Predict the structure.
Amino acid sequence: MEARLDLFNNPLAGKLFKHFNSAGRVITESALPAVTQELVKIRASQINGCAFCTDMHTKDADAAGESATRLHMVAVWREAKVFTDAERAALELTEQATRIADAAGGVTDEAWANAAKYYDEDQLAALIALIAVINAYNRVNVIVQQPAGDYVPGMFG
């Protein structure tokens, strides 16, 4: 399987991803817990059907020491006992923001208030930026049908 467009060698895509990656670096360096960041990236990627990002972020989380049990349970986090209340709040916000077109009201006040119980303003800013950035990456990869399975943690620097 090959991608419809070679994003890794296209000059315009390279310029675009340089900016995406810069935004991602700001988020990575924020006070939002790294484990929460990976869970959010995995869940949004699952919802969007982005195989490339799901492959990348599950492998990155595994390499960072995340347990296989928690990784396997991300898709069913509501029923899983392995996530903290703060992680659950972030996953709920991720789902609602990723499925924003499915709900006329967008993100509910309840989901926002719950996230705000666990994260300060800077962490909330990082969380919403992360949700936006991973959704952008997901959409690009789904549109071009970027193949998955070959990612090696750290291969993008």
In short: The chain has a mean pLDDT of 95. The chain has seven helices and no strands. The two ends are 25 Å apart (CA to CA). The chain has one domain: 11-144.
